[in-house]
Design goal:
By secondary structure, the protein is mainly alpha-helical. The chain has helices at 3-19, 45-94. The protein starts with a helix and ends with a helix.
Length: 96
């Protein structure tokens, strides 16, 4: 394999690695968190406390969802990097 072919092959792999996310999930996941409804007027301290508890539960649910999505991003990015490194090792050690 000529150097020109090696460079072309490496370029194709890099383009594919960075374009695959465009073909990934067509539908992004969304959090299954229940947004609290704020009443027009609070009639008691219990209603205020209850609403504030609901807000905290909602915040916690959203934060958990974001954390899981960020972990998935890191996992997928590492897999892509590993594949690129595997290809580069192949080109450097098998084709040279």
């Amino acid at each position: 394999m000529t150097l020109k072919n090696k460079i072309s092959s490496s370029f194709v792999v890099l383009v594919l690695a960075f374009s695959i996310p465009a073909f990934a999930d067509m539908f992004a996941p969304s959090p299954l968190c229940s947004k609290p409804s704020k009443p027009f007027q609070f009639n008691s301290q219990w209603e205020i406390d209850s609403f504030n508890d609901d807000v905290q539960r909602y915040k916690h649910c959203i934060n958990n969802f974001v954390d899981k999505q960020n972990e998935a991003v890191e996992t997928h990015q590492q897999a892509a990097n590993d594949a690129i490194n595997k290809w580069n090792r192949f080109v450097n050690y098998e084709l040279n």
